[in-house]
Design goal:
- The strands form three sheets. A six-stranded mixed sheet has the order 2-3-1-4-11-5, sandwiched between helices. Strands 8-7-9-6-10 form a five-stranded mixed sheet. It has a four-stranded antiparallel sheet with strand order 13-14-12-15.
- The two termini are 39 Å apart.
- It is an alpha/beta fold.
- It has three domains: 3-97 and 192-201, Periplasmic binding protein-like II (D-Maltodextrin-Binding Protein, domain 2); 99-190, Periplasmic binding protein-like II (D-Maltodextrin-Binding Protein, domain 2), CATH 3.40.190.10; 222-286, 2-Layer Sandwich (Alpha-Beta Plaits).
- The chain has eight helices and 15 strands.
- Bound molecules: adenosine monophosphate.
- Adenosine monophosphate binds next to strand 9 and helix 5.
């Protein structure tokens, strides 16, 4: 078998081969214990402990491969699934790659209503979603908006005189601002998702991957807090750290109690302040390296 041949019995998992999602997806797979060794310049890699082969593909093609059943499972954006009208099962949201697909017009044009762009020229990498967005506005105004596809550097189109507005992804807004554009409307909110083919014959592996990835995502969202307190404040501090299910309480030999509980990372600083104010002491916070709920 050549290095580029896929074992027909393997579950195929598609990962964006480069771009801003690549690092996040590979970190997630590592954290979830999906181990593989990718040779330089090869777009496939066999997994170490699962009958699975990783395939590295352009993010914009992954939903097509999964939808058509060439690949069993993959990571891509909601925007790509919707643009390609791919019939895939959404297994879970991954909590990264969040951004908005926006209608953007030059600040100098002073356009603030998308209706004022109906009948004009739009340039985008998302022609299907853009058409869906403008169709009802066009119908209302009795005009046809011109939608032209470009594969990249969409933000340059207005400056080059090719478009009156663009439809492009906005994360921080830096690219948009640098091109002298501003948001006029939002077509779609998107983030990275795990997708699978509904007829995949590798349901058990898909389920296992889902649990592994969920465990990793939970471990990134939560920290473990532990502290000591006296019996009289146990109810009060327990209500500050109720945990996912309930706090773990251990009786200490001096009559006090040790409490440990999961707390959302976003809330941990406030929770520590509240615990200290309520009388808890020896408050320690631990990162989680993995979890399985
Ligand atoms: P920003 O300057 O952070 O708003 O990023 C905007 C540029 O990055 C646009 O050209 C987008 O095409 C691209 N981009 C932003 N977020 C994503 C994402 N989650 N997935 C793919 N491309 C993105």
């Amino acid at each position: 078998m050549s290095a580029n041949t896929v074992n027909p019995d393997h579950c195929l998992f598609a990962v964006p081969k480069k771009g801003r999602l690549y690092e996040k997806v590979t970190a997630m797979l590592k954290g979830a214990g999906v181990e593989y060794h990718r040779e330089p310049r090869l777009d496939i890699a066999i997994c170490k402990d699962l009958p699975m082969t990783m395939v590295f593909l352009p993010a914009s093609d992954i939903s097509k491969y999964v939808g058509e059943g060439n690949v069993d499972i993959g990571v891509t954006g909601i925007d790509i699934v919707e643009e390609n009208c791919s019939e895939v099962e959404r297994v879970m949201d991954l909590g990264f790659g969040a951004c908005r697909l926006c209608v953007q017009a030059p600040v100098a044009s002073q356009i603030t209503d998308v209706k004022d762009l109906a009948g004009k020229r739009i340039v985008t990498s998302f022609p299907t979603l853009t058409k869906k967005f403008f169709d009802p506005i066009d119908a209302e105004k009795g005009v046809t908006t011109s939608i032209r596809f470009v594969s990249g550097s969409v933000e340059a189109a207005c400056g080059l005189g090719l478009a009156d507005a663009v439809v492009d992804l906005v994360e921080t807004g830096t690219t948009m601002k640098a091109a002298g554009l501003e948001v006029v409307g939002t077509v779609l909110q998107t983030e990275s998702i795990l997708i699978t083919n509904p007829d995949s014959k590798h349901k058990k592996i898909v389920e296992l991957l889902k649990h592994r990835i969920e465990g990793y995502i939970t471990s990134k969202k939560f920290v473990m807090v532990s502290y000591n307190c006296s019996a009289d404040i146990l109810d009060a501090v327990s209500s500050i750290t109720p945990g996912k299910r309930s706090p773990t309480i251990t009786a200490l030999t001096d009559g006090g109690h040790a409490v440990s509980s999961l707390v959302s990372k976003k809330e941990i600083v406030r929770v520590m302040d509240d615990l200290h104010a309520a009388g808890a002491r020896d408050i320690l916070v631990f990162e989680l390296s993995n979890s399985r709920m």
